[in-house]
Amino acid sequence: MLPDDTNAEAPIRKDDAPPVASRDSDVKAAEAERDESAVVGRTVTIGLPREEVYAFWRDFSNLAGIMENIERIDAIDARRSHWVVKGPGGKTVEWDSVVTDDEPGRLIAWQSVEGSDVKNSGRVEFLDAAPGRGTMVRATIAYDPPGGTIGQWIAKILQREPNLQVRGDLRRLKQFLETGEVTSSASPSGRKNESPTEQAL
Amino acid sequence: MRAVTWQGKHKIEVMDVPDPEIVNPRDAIIKVTSTAICGSDLHLYDGYIPTMRHGDILGHEFMGEVVETGPKSTLEKGQRVVVPFTISCGDCFFCKHDQYSACDNANPATTSDMSETLYGYPMGGAFGYAHLTGGYAGGQAEYVRVPYSDVGPIVIPDGLEDDKVLFLSDILPTGWMAAENAMIEEGDTVAIWGCGPVGLFAVQSALLMGAYRVIAIDHFPQRLELAKRMGAEVLNYKETDILEALWEMTGGIGPDACIDCVGMESHGLGIDNIADTIKAATFLGTDRPAGLRQAIHACRKGGRLSIPGVYGGMADKFPIGALMEKGLTVKSGQTHVQKYTRLLLDLIGEDRIDTTFLISHHGGLEDAPSLYKHWHDDQNEYTKIVLKPGMQGTKAVA
Question: Under a CB-based contact definition with an 8 Å cutoff, are residues A104 and A90 in contact?
Answer without folding.
Answer: no
